[in-house]
Q: What sequence folds into this?
């Protein structure tokens, strides 16, 4: 339960953070923040060499797909096509790094009108359908992360359209707290059976500050309790700075110990 | 996004040093001109179409506007 654990890091920052990450005993969630981080300039044979070297060094990896400007449901067909290509590239990277999942954002904007929202959802679903086919071929699960959604309705509709277990959810505790207009634990109560990965960071309830755990207002106990009760396999990424990682690890361990019947620590 | 930055103070183990070397080799490929970037993009698309075969490309069945 809540294992393995990773810390997030942009690909370009890993060399300078590698020693500390290794010392912490954490895996690394490689953040391909921009599509330009991923391709076309990345030579796949070099990425495969890197993946092998990380595996041999005992550093496990997960992959977070690009998200800046990525939108599978865009009205612009060029952006839809580019988004699909970029996320497909990220899937291949996830396969190369033996990541069990690829985390992706929806690209949805809550301010859409109902009509635009419906069009967006159709376009997004068409792209997601293709992406899920590719994910199944590569044996990588997709983990759709809550980002700017203010309530549960969009994810409910998406999961209704795609009941396949190949589509899971990444619960972002920080986003649920600072961007949502509902009680944050409702996310984990509603989607406990779809959540395969959790992003943990703290904030002030207004901005996505990526503070260390316990430094803000995020109610991790309430958010994680439904997942703990269900007892499924859920991995965790600390989305905090390397400097805040040790204390955040300690905070997380203490939280786990406080859950009734926990035997994972 | 918070950035994870750390200056190492001691030599890495050989295995971690190999990871760092491989990472730096990947990152060196980023230093491209726009012209080189476009050429690589075109080459990648050609290779992907060759690998996946005509009519079986992930981009072929996108919905119409």
A:
């Amino acid at each position: 339960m809540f294992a393995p654990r990773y810390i997030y890091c942009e690909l370009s920052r890993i060399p300078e953070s590698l020693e500390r990450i290794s010392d912490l005993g954490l895996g690394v969630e490689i953040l391909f923040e921009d599509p330009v981080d991923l391709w076309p300039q990345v030579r796949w044979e070099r990425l495969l060499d890197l993946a092998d070297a990380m595996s041999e060094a005992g550093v496990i990896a997960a992959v977070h797909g690009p998200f800046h400007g990525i939108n599978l449901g865009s009205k612009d067909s060029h952006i839809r096509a580019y988004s699909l290509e970029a996320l497909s590239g990220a899937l291949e990277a996830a396969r190369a790094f033996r990541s069990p999942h690829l985390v992706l954002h929806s690209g949805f904007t809550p301010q859409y009108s109902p009509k635009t929202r419906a069009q967006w959802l159709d376009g997004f679903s068409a792209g997601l359908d293709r992406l899920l086919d590719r994910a199944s071929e590569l044996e990588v699960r997709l983990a759709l992360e809550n980002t700017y959604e203010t309530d549960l309705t969009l994810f409910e509709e998406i999961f209704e359209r795609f009941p396949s277990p190949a589509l899971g959810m990444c619960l972002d505790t920080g986003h649920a707290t600072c961007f949502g207009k509902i009680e944050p634990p409702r996310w984990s109560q509603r989607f406990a059976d779809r959540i395969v990965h959790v992003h943990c960071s703290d904030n002030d309830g207004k901005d996505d500050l990526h503070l260390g755990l316990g430094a803000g207002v995020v109610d991790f106990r309430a958010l994680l309790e439904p997942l703990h009760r269900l007892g499924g396999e859920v991995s965790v990424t600390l989305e905090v700075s390397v400097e805040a990682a040790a204390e955040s690890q300690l905070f997380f361990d203490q939280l786990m110990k406080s859950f009734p019947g926990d035997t994972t620590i | 996004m918070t950035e994870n930055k750390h200056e190492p103070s001691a030599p890495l183990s050989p295995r971690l040093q190999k990871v760092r070397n491989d990472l730096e080799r990947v990152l060196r490929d980023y230093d491209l001109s726009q012209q080189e970037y476009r050429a690589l993009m075109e080459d990648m698309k050609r290779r992907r179409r060759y690998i996946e075969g005509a009519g079986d490309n992930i981009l072929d069945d996108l919905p119409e506007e």
Remarks:
- The CA atoms of residues 103 and 179 of chain A lie 18 Å apart.
- Residues 5-258 of chain A form a domain with the TIM Barrel fold (CATH 3.20.20.150).
- The beta strands of chain A are 5-10, 27-31, 61-64, 101-105, 141-145, 167-172, 195-200, 235-238.
